[in-house]
Structure formats: structure tokens, C-alpha cells
Amino acid sequence: MTAPGAFERGTDGPRVILVGVDGSPTSLRAAAYAAGLARRQRSRLVAVHVTEAAPPMAGWVPAAQAVVREAAAEVAAELRREILSAAEQLGIEVDYRTLHGDPVAEISRIADALPADAVLVGASEQAGHRVIGSVAVRLVRMGHWPVTVVP
Description:
Blueprint: E1 16-20, H1 25-41, E2 44-51, H2 64-90, E3 94-100, H3 103-113, E4 118-122, H4 129-132, H5 135-142, E5 147-150
Parallel strand pairs: 1-2, 1-4, 2-3, 4-5
């Protein structure tokens, strides 16, 4: 039995829903699904965009890392505008966060800190992820929270 007021997963629907977004079609579908779920359940919605470090080969070209960082910042700003605009249309509030690092590490860190009752992500569209594991598969394997993978 849980003490009164203590956090308990699985009761009365999700209170905090975390969705990972990266601008891909599947992540935008996951965001739309999460927004609808948050609206219906009256849950807090947290959207997380994680920019990864510049690819290793970017160091071989002068000023490439600056270009990669600038492009990542533009993507993050556009996603922020898009998600906040959609949330306003739906009449829900969204806590949008942009982080830097490994997507799985950052999403799991935020999900644990909130604590999130549900994590939603889009399915990977990259063929190589079938071998090494996508963000979605890695989050599911962690097993800390229910993870919904949206196709």
C-alpha cells in the first residue's frame, strides 16, 4: 500500500506524458498522439527535443561543427514553434525542452526526474536501427516507464 500523496504509477491514467520529438514524421505523429492523450486525460505534456553532438567527420571540415550546431538550433526553434502552435490550437499547455546529448540518456533522465507516467516516441525510419537499436527500442528495454512507439 502506498502512503497518501505518494507517487504511484498506473493509477487514474497518466499525470505526466513525455514525448520525444526530432522533426521526423513519426515523431510528429507521436507528438500529436501525446497531445490528444494529454488533452483527454488532463495530463501535463512535456515535449523533449534532443540534439546530438556533431558527427565525427564534421571535425574534418573547417567550420562544419558551427554549421551543424546552427542547423540543429534552427530545427529546434522550428519544432518549438510548431508544437506550441498546435498545443495552443488544442487548448493544452506544453513544457517544451531542448537538450543536448544522447537522446536515450536525456529522455530517460527527464522521464525519471519528472517522473513521467508515459513516454511516447516515433518509430525509427532508419534501416540500421534494426541492428543496433533505435531510441524507441532502447527506451523500451530500460523498462522504467510505459513506452508507446508510434509508427
